Amino acid sequence: xxxxxxxxxxxxxxxxxxxxxxxxxxxxxxxxxxxxxxxxxxxxxxxxxxxxxxxxxxxxxxxxxxxxxxxxxxxxxxxxxxxxxxxxxxxxxxxxxxxxxxxxxxxxxxxxxxxxxxxxxxxxxxxxxxxxxxxxxxxxxxxxxxx
Length: 147
Prior knowledge:
Blueprint: H1 11-15, H2 20-27, H3 32-47, H4 56-62, H5 66-79, E1 82-85, E2 97-100, H6 103-120, H7 124-136, H8 142-146
Antiparallel strand pairs: 1-2
Helix pairs in contact: 2-3, 3-5
């Protein structure tokens, strides 16, 4: 049986993450080459105090193919773990390149807060709104699901 290539985001799996290898294992399951490339990218950006303009040195130093490196970099950027800084960004004084980003951690905190807010909101008007929204999905009302 082949291993799934989808991000393994089960709550138990997330609580077991201790280091970078666990993180890239969760984000790139079933692809050790991309796990290695992603870990190298994250480590290179973590130790750099400035944006890294090119990651081609990782290809040479760690025998990572360009395609694997680009795919890992693209996925890390889509997830919000890294971001590209333009030379037009005044905040970095004309520097450009890749850097670690807080977008993913910020988004996950916002998601957790919204889930907690929704769970705590027991007002009748909230329940009515939820029932209407679920009805729009074609699933039926929340009350019929609980019967």
